[in-house]
Design goal:
Structural class: mainly alpha
Number of domains: 1
Largest sheet: 2 strands, antiparallel
CATH superfamily: MFS general substrate transporter like domains
Oligomer: single chain
Strand content: under 5%
CATH architecture: Up-down Bundle
Order of helices and strands: HEEHHHHHHHHHHHHHHHHHH
CATH topology: Growth Hormone, Chain: A
Helix content: over 70%
Shape: globular
Number of helices: 19
Strand order of the largest sheet: 1-2
Length: 492
Amino acid sequence: MRSVLGSARRKSPCQLFRKGERKMANPNEGAAHKTPAYAWPCLFASLFIAVTLVWEWQWMPGVTGGTATKWFLFNNPDIAGMFGFNPAELQGEALGAWFGENLGRAIGVVMGNSMSWVPIGAIIMAFPTTFLVQKIGPKWASVIGVCIAIVGAIITTLCLTSSWTGYQVGRFIFGLALACTIVAGPTCVSIWFPGATRGRAMAIWSTWAPIGIFTVNMWGGNVLDLLGGDIVMLNWLWIVLMAIAGVVFLIVFREPRGDEVSEVSPERKRLRDVLQFFKSRQLWSLIILFAIFNYMNYAFSQYLKTWLAMDISAGGMGWDAGMAGLIGGALCACGILGPIGGWIMDKLSRDKKWIAPLLGIISLTICMVLSFKANNAIFALYALFFCIGNMFLNGCCRPMVPTYVFKGGATAVAFGLSFLTCGQYLGQIPTSYAFQYGTSVGMSYSDIMMYFFVPVGIVGIIFGLLMKPSKPKAEIAEGGAAGAPAGKPEEK
């Protein structure tokens, strides 16, 4: 009897599934693992790359969409021709009147198209990055991502004052690089950190976008002023910083050796050997939830700072640019609280971890209801729920992937993160077009949120609930036999 019970206890949770649905794997099973000291330099070297890419990705909302769009109108002939803008014929009050009538529509078109080509490129590159990781490892996949980012950024920079089409091609190429970073970077982290600390470690890495968005929103305008308002020079600065980050990563990062290896083995298995780990309702619910999170959240990274600086008569808060940059940047960067969410998730039992992302999507949906209303009290409530939502969703979604598929090693983690990345950018693409359509028909930002975002948030809550694992009948039977004293069946 003892040998039978011992065998039941040793049975892997990954072996217990029904109709293709897999229980969440326990990332702490087996011998205890300590976090190697060198894991932390590797984490921050990868994070540095990702943050510098955000500066180039988000430079336009970072200096406010209105400032960037006006610069394009005066410096890019394609944009000027698109809107029939001729500064030689528009002077004084006539120029101000033209901006009053057309600037909102111009911001929607210029920012919408500029920001949307990046996620399109990221979606296309998400799955090829898995093959890069499988063939050459996460380190060299990250390095290739930096090189592609620099190429894309150079093309956009060279086309800023000449070709709108060329500029968008560069943004698309940059999106390819962003996918390499988002897939390979967390894979680099996962092979270093054991299950006991992986949640918070990957949550720290997941602050890449909030840190980058906050800094570019807070300092982007000031850096542009220091460069004499020259947006071309601003983009060259981001290119130099990306190159520096790539060199630092190349020197610092290495794969773990010996007893440094976490439960996520750096071994690169064949893709077909890890497909068994993707027969999971919970994993696919997570991917859809993450897509919805990004669809909702992307609205604020693009438009919050612009709305805070928008005139009260136009429905904005009417703040000066400095205050709008400070508060808007801080709120858009509240995903930096993600490590708190990751730490909370690490403390939850295995079958309760799904509650963390569910709380996040509920909070973010409440935030959508309260957003873009020019009322200080409502704005304070919006900020609270926005921060709670980002703390859980930004901090807990990526760490859930290796928690589900860690037995497949680096290949399985990269493949799972590819799906997550694809969901992320599929979510972000329609955000720009929702605002572009809404502003074109005269809707306020608040109305756009109520019609195009709140209903999607409710769908996200449903998928959050679907992440709750079911207990297979086989496990119920074995659990009762293995865990309950004779004559006292264990309650389920």
